[in-house]
Write a structure and sequence with these properties.
The complex is a heterodimer of chains A (169) and B (688). Chain A has 169 residues and is an alpha+beta fold. Chain A contains five helices and five strands. Chain A has a five-stranded mixed β-sheet, with helices on one face. In chain A, a hairpin with a 2-residue loop joins strand 1 and strand 2. Chain A is globular. Chain A starts with a strand and ends in a 5-residue tail after the last helix. Helices cover 29% and strands 26% of the residues of chain B. Chain B has 688 residues and is of the alpha+beta class. In chain B, helix 11 runs parallel beside helix 14. In chain B, the strands form seven sheets. Chain B has a six-stranded mixed β-sheet, with helices on one face. A five-stranded mixed β-sheet of chain B has the order 1-10-9-8-2, with helices on both faces. A four-stranded mixed β-sheet of chain B has the order 5-4-3-6, covered by helices on one side. Chain B starts with a strand and ends with a helix. Chain B is built from 18 helices and 27 strands. Classes of the chains: A alpha+beta (169), B alpha+beta (688). Chains A and B meet through helix 5 of A and helix 16 of B.
């Protein structure tokens, strides 16, 4: 049998039991942590709705990870952040605020994935700034594979661009 | 097994149509034969094509899921679902318990926000699956489909085989139309017959055609379930007529704008295929003018030349559509509640399926309460079912009689129909609660016509403004009702009635009103002078329209056959916009979905298709951000005197498919693609 798995989830230490180590991270978030903000859509890593972000060290830039494809047993020692880590209802993160103000989503189901991928992009932009003219390409690489069926992508990109532009060099 | 067929025949020379001809059924076939014979005689040039549109999956983001618990002691079924049709689902789930070993007194359905819908959750079979399984579970049952299962059994857009012949005389007058649609409903009946019906009703689009025959049937096959996905049969109809008109203009050497302009339906000028009058200003002349003058159209030949010199093929296509919103036989419920804290909550059985309805309906309270709702409970069915309204007429009508029952949640019904009924619930609270309370505070009774809201204060000439909180506190102290529940019926017009409101008898455009302390504790207001819309309206088919026109610029790489949609310009008739950014968002989503339906998406109806349970996004290609073109949405100002919104959820999508096909025809020197999807390999093959 596998060993228990320890990792950091939204800034707090968690331990997955040995029995849960075969779960996907998505199941673990939903069933064991009551964190339902990360969404299930395709289950095969194509739509990006389940995107969470990982960090190798507290100050490191974020990387993206598909929660639907990630086995809990692979998370030993990792730092994971989900959409619940961003803002609160009364104090939204800048990206969340921009998504709202720009009416970026309508059904909202893809929004957590877009938020986490864009959060990772912002952290990379802070670490390695690009010029404003390179920003659209960076946004495409960050969220170009995310699926949205309601609003046709345009408003997500506008909102991300608005938040990211001040970080360009 | 079922094979419902709808047909409409109109022949102005014989003064023959569905709405007004008393012996319509008896003569329909003979008149249709006469029209077909006239077209076959080639008195006018005719343009004829067969078309095929493929089965498309709505690919809403959240696969269907739900919970159910059968409480044997209470004989009650509890369900939690994301659905577009909560009222119908309760009826369907109740019906499958009839005669079973599991007695059922009621269904308690908690409807939650679905992750998208697009028609794919409208009369889906999923609710019945979990309702049927619930009594056999040892605990509350949770059932969540995987994406593979959703592709396999979820409702899809009907595969459609259709053909159309259009007769256009040398002067550019459309003389006759003959069309038929066969829509594959798949293995279980759902809304597919009504999708077929709307295809026939949409077949003339926005044109006044003096002779028309339109037939559509929905077939029962052992294939993928074909339902009411976005557009509800309209897109197929618009594809046929708009590509044939493009071809006619080219062949007859007529300007495509002039050709359309001289055949347009206009308010009180021309009729629909049923003979119904045009009750709205369709603003089609303005749509044509904006598109015709647009640089994308004006510069198309120069751009064509420039792209050709770069080894590419380029075309700009143009098309119109006239998508109806609502069925013109609709019933709607809503309730508005004011808490003692002053918070405003909307209750509605309507669903936000990704069309922004939760936002739009929360704005509807502002008309009479001067403030948006703080929260909205969508998919609320229990409170409205408890009213036990009936559509069974009697003389005199019982107090719980209404003309139309509340139906399922079509995306296009939010902005006009559902907004209206929320707005009216707000008016009922103004008349029964806030105004009586304010009049006590003012000490001088004021009529409703004299008051208005300004900066969350109720104001009247010559008296101190009353803050919202003060008026609400007074209403609470007077034990006035804090909830209003209303029902409205729309059949070409709203049913109206007089109600005994707290401020006095008032005629409202609704047919049932109840007030009380909370949504489950209300009493009906005494109703009198109920006036239903004219009976003839029931024969009109559709009466409310959101026209749209589009220009699409497309580039083909002849080496690969790949199509890139470069630009889309849409001119939309939307009436009064409740929330312009949401109209824009709906438009952008529609552009993406239209590109997918014409160029990319396909569910084969054989063993290789999603029915085999092995389909996911790896096989089903949908538009991604990189496929999205530059877009310009031009929303026309409301027509003169227009004070309401039009349902636009499907409108922008409707002209795009024919506009894309017309662009491809220009790019390829006249090739007419009529079988969807027009993939790169299809184009490549056609070019060589």
């Amino acid at each position: 049998m596998s060993d228990p798995v320890q990792f950091t989830l939204n800034g707090r230490a968690v331990e997955a039991s040995a029995q849960d180590s075969d779960m996907t991270l998505l199941e673990f978030l939903h069933e064991r942590q009551d964190l339902t903000g990360t969404k299930f859509c395709c289950g095969v890593g194509m739509c990006c709705a389940c995107t969470v972000i990982t960090q190798s060290a507290p100050d490191a830039a974020f990387d993206k990870k598909f929660a639907c494809l990630t086995q809990v047993s692979s998370l030993q020692g990792m730092r994971i952040q989900t959409v619940e880590s961003l803002g609160t209802q009364d104090d939204l993160a800048p990206l969340q605020q921009a998504f709202l103000e720009n009416f970026s989503f309508q059904c909202g189901y893809c929004a957590p994935g877009f938020l986490m991928a864009a959060t990772a992009m912002l952290s990379q932009l802070k670490a390695t700034p690009v010029s404003a003219s390179q920003l659209d390409a960076l946004i495409e690489s960050a969220v170009g594979s995310h699926v949205c069926r309601c609003t046709g992508y345009v408003r997500y990109r506008e909102a991300i661009r608005k938040v990211a532009l001040p970080l360009t060099r | 097994s079922y094979l419902p067929t709808f047909s409409y025949v109109r022949d102005d020379a014989r003064n023959f149509n569905f709405a007004y001809t008393t012996d319509y059924a008896a003569r329909q076939d003979d008149v249709a034969t006469g029209i077909k014979r006239a077209m076959a005689s080639k008195a006018w040039p005719t343009f004829s094509r067969a078309f095929y549109t493929q089965t498309i999956d709505p690919m809403f983001m959240e696969p269907e899921s739900g919970m159910a618990w059968y409480d044997a002691d209470a004989q009650q079924l509890h369900m939690v679902l994301g659905t577009q049709s909560p009222t119908g689902d309760i009826e369907d789930c109740t019906s499958i318990y009839d005669g079973s070993a599991f007695p059922l007194k009621s269904v308690d359905l908690l409807s939650c926000y679905p992750g998208g819908g697009f028609g794919g959750r409208d009369q889906s079979y999923f609710p019945m699956y979990i309702a049927m399984a619930a009594p056999f579970a040892k605990a509350p049952l949770r059932w969540a489909q995987t994406r593979f299962e959703q592709f396999q059994v979820g409702l899809k857009c009907c595969e459609t085989d259709f053909r159309e012949t259009l007769a256009v005389d040398a002067n550019g007058k459309i003389q006759a139309l003959d069309c038929s649609f066969v829509m594959n409903g798949g293995g279980q009946k759902n809304l597919s017959p009504y999708v077929a019906q709307l295809a026939t009703l949409s077949s003339m689009s926005c044109y006044n055609i003096p002779r028309a025959v339109a037939v559509a049937s929905s077939t029962h096959t052992p294939q993928l379930l074909g339902g009411s996905q976005r557009g509800f049969g309209g897109p197929q109809a618009f594809m046929a007529i708009e590509t044939l008109l493009d071809e006619a203009a080219q062949t007859l050497k007529l300007d495509p704008f002039t050709l359309r302009r001289q055949n347009l339906l206009r308010q009180n000028q021309g009729t629909t295929i049923t003979g119904a009058p045009i009750l709205q200003d369709l603003q089609l002349d303005a749509v044509l003018e904006r598109l015709e003058q647009h640089p994308l159209w004006q510069q198309r030949m120069a751009m064509h030349q420039a792209r050709m010199e770069a080894g590419l093929m380029y075309g700009v296509g143009f098309a119109l559509s006239n998508e109806a919103y609502g069925t013109s036989g609709d019933g709607m419920f809503a309730a508005v509640e004011i808490a003692s804290t002053g918070q405003v909550t909307v209750y509605t059985p309507y669903i936000d399926m990704g069309n922004g309805a939760a936002t739009a309906l929360s704005l509807a309270t502002a008309s009479f309460l001067g403030r948006n709702a703080n929260s909205i409970n969508m998919g609320e069915a229990r409170a409205f079912d408890a009213l036990q309204l009936t559509t069974m007429p009697a003389a005199p009508p019982p107090p719980n009689y209404v003309l139309r029952s509340s139906g399922s949640a079509s995306a296009c019904m939010g902005a006009f129909h559902q907004y209206h009924v929320v707005e009216q619930a707000g008016q009922v609270l103004l008349l029964n609660t806030l105004l009586p309370a304010a009049n006590v505070l003012w000490g001088t009774p004021q009529p409703a016509s004299a008051v208005r809201w300004k900066d969350h204060r109720l104001v009247v000439e010559g008296l101190p403004p009353l803050p919202w909180a003060t008026v609400v506190a007074q209403a609470v102290s007077m034990k006035l009702p804090l909830v209003a529940v209303v029902h409205a019926s729309y059949v070409g017009a709203f049913a109206t009635a007089q109600f005994a409101c707290g401020s006095g008898p008032t005629t409202l455009p609704v047919d049932y009103v109840a007030v009380g302390s909370d949504v489950m504790n209300v009493r009906a207001l005494t109703r009198s002078h109920l006036v239903n819309p004219p009976t003839i309206n029931r024969h009109f088919g559709r009466t409310t329209y959101a026209p749209c026109g589009a220009l699409v610029a497309a580039t083909i790489d002849p080496k690969t056959g790949k199509v890139k949609i470069d630009d889309v310009v849409s001119v939309l008739v939307a009436g009064v916009q409740h929330c312009p950014p949401m109209v824009s968002g709906q438009s952008q989503g529609a552009v993406a979905m239209a590109i997918g339906s014409v160029l990319l998406e396909d569910c084969p109806n054989d063993a290789s298709g999603p029915g085999n349970g092995m389909w996911n996004l790896g096989r089903y290609t949908i538009p991604m951000a990189a496929d999205i073109p530059r877009q310009e949405l031009i929303v026309l100002p409301p027509a003169p005197g227009e004070t309401t919104a039009r349902g636009i959820a499907e409108a922008v999508m409707c002209p795009l498919a024919p506009a894309i096909l017309n662009a491809l025809a220009m790019a390829t020197g006249g090739k007419r693609y009529t079988r969807m999807p027009v993939t790169a390999s299809v184009i490549l093959e056609s070019l060589h």
